[in-house]
Amino acid sequence: MMKQDAIYYDSDIDMSLINDFQIGLIGYGNQGQAQALNLRDNGFNVAIGARKNGQAYQRAKVDGFEVFSLDYIASNCNLICLLLPDEIIKSAYEEHIEPYIGNCHFIFAHGFVVTNNLLRLPDTSDVILVAPTGPGRILRNLFLNGQSLPALIAVANDATTNAFNLALSYGCAIGCAKAGLIKTTFQEETVVDLFCEQAILCGGLPGLIKAGFNTLVSRGYNPILAYISCLKEVKLIADLMFTEGIDGMRQAISTTAKYGSFTTQDVIINENVRYKLNGILESIEKSEFSQNYLNSLATDLKDLQEWLKEEKQLPIVKTGKIVRENLNF
Ligand SMILES: NC(=O)c1ccc[n+]([C@@H]2O[C@H](COP(=O)([O-])OP(=O)(O)OC[C@H]3O[C@@H](n4cnc5c(N)ncnc54)[C@H](OP(=O)(O)O)[C@@H]3O)[C@@H](O)[C@H]2O)c1
């Protein structure tokens, strides 16, 4: 059970703490753009680091930010947020940041590179996690509507003995303390994030959708109906669970659907699946997944590219194109 004192809100936090810093955001993608805009709207000065030939450079300029090289941000900012794709952070850090940094502190939006010890971060730097619990676009849209996404906050190195307050201040400044800042560790955030994206969000759920679609279509059912029921309607159920929880979703569905889920859930999610879920979690906890991933990066993720190419040819993908072209929803 979570202790209430492990969640922090706007009223608990001195947001002005980060006023003492020259803030540099390296990366102006999903998170970078949203965090930079929210920081600016909350009155903070932000410098953006982006490569000159990239789209991010132009996008940040169009949004009215001062944009610099990564090296410049490393030399001139003392609160550096590394908002690059996780697979890029190590090489960018070694080439453009590590040689130039002075006395500075680091903020990450995901624990992966720190948990896997991929960077030689100075002992004198605070190393902080402020991980919004959703995409940047939603972080920004909620902020504009006066709402927010919760964020997970943690400290991996507390050089100043004030790192946790700095994490609170930054989390508040990007707008996340309205919903709540949840105290965690880099390790916990990384493991939970990887496990959920693999077992549920991007692995398990799409796998189940594909299997359900194939079952119907291989027995002669109309692929368009199968697509709508197996894939499109997931959003409706997900929205219900998002706002009302599992019990609220059950209340909103028909008695037939309730009875059907009662009789089939344990047939699908059986002992074997639970065993596999534990195996996935253990592989992440023991860093086996990360090691395999890092090794695959060295060979340009050839297996992944092949799998993605094959997935594009699946009947469910082709049906999706037809549904999007012909049905206006
Ligand atoms: N996406 C999410 O929903 C989400 C949610 C929570 C946390 N996070 C975390 O936030 C961090 C940033 O993720 P993101 O999704 O925001 O990343 P992203 O959108 O993929 O970020 C792309 C940014 O990285 C730059 N970039 C890519 N390759 C580069 C290179 N070789 N050198 C210099 N710049 C390069 C891009 O600039 P160019 O235009 O020049 O390519 C762009 O500014 C990650 O740690 C991620 O785990 C993400």
Structural summary, described in words:
This protein has 15 helices and nine strands. Helix 9 (204-218) crosses helix 10 (223-252) and helix 10 (223-252) crosses helix 15 (315-326). It has helices spanning 30-41, 55-62, 70-76, 86-97, 112-115, 136-144, 163-173, 186-201, 204-218, 223-252, 255-268, 271-285, 288-298, 302-312, 315-326; strands at residues 7-8, 23-26, 46-49, 66-68, 79-82, 105-108, 127-132, 151-157, 181-183. Strands 1-9-8-7-6-5-2-3-4 form a nine-stranded mixed beta sheet, with helices on both faces. The chain folds into two domains: 4-184, NAD(P)-binding Rossmann-like Domain (Rossmann fold), CATH 3.40.50; 203-326, no CATH class. The relative contact order is 0.09. The model has no long low-confidence stretch (mean pLDDT 96). It is an alpha/beta fold and 329 residues long. Residues 27-32, 50-51, 54-56, 83-86, 88, 92, 109-110, 131-132, 135-136 line the site of NADP nicotinamide-adenine-dinucleotide phosphate.
